[in-house]
Amino acid sequence: MINTIIINGHRAVVSLDAELGMLRGEFIELNGGADFYADSLPALVAEGECSLAVFLEVCRENDIEPKRHFSGKFQVRLPEALHAEAVAAAAARGISLNQFVAEAVEHETMAEA
Fold first, then answer.
1. What pLDDT is stored for residue 109 in this prediction?
2. pTM for the complete prediction?
3. Using H for helix, E for strand and C for coil, what is the string for 33-86?
4. What is the residue extent of each domain of the chain?
């Protein structure tokens, strides 16, 4: 399950930091680190709003683009056998390996939304 929240239009992943006994949020589409902690979800959202405001202000002051840009390209490493199975499955469907992987990623991300 993907645990995400949207704070002022920016997505953050939420996890439990068991060592601290707190929730941890981390903005994942920003061009730098901006994480925040709290002991409840409402408090986490409030901390996230503060963290985001500070991050965006620093970006403005330093003329830095705050949003991370994605090229649409990434390299995937698979065990040889799984790579061969993926090629065969894509060929059986009459699509490219790239399309096969894109559909698998879309399926998994949409299933969790």
1. 83
2. 0.72
3. CCEEEECCHHHHHHHHHHHHHHHHHHHHHCCCCCECCCCCCCCCCCCHHHHHHH
4. 4-61, 80-112
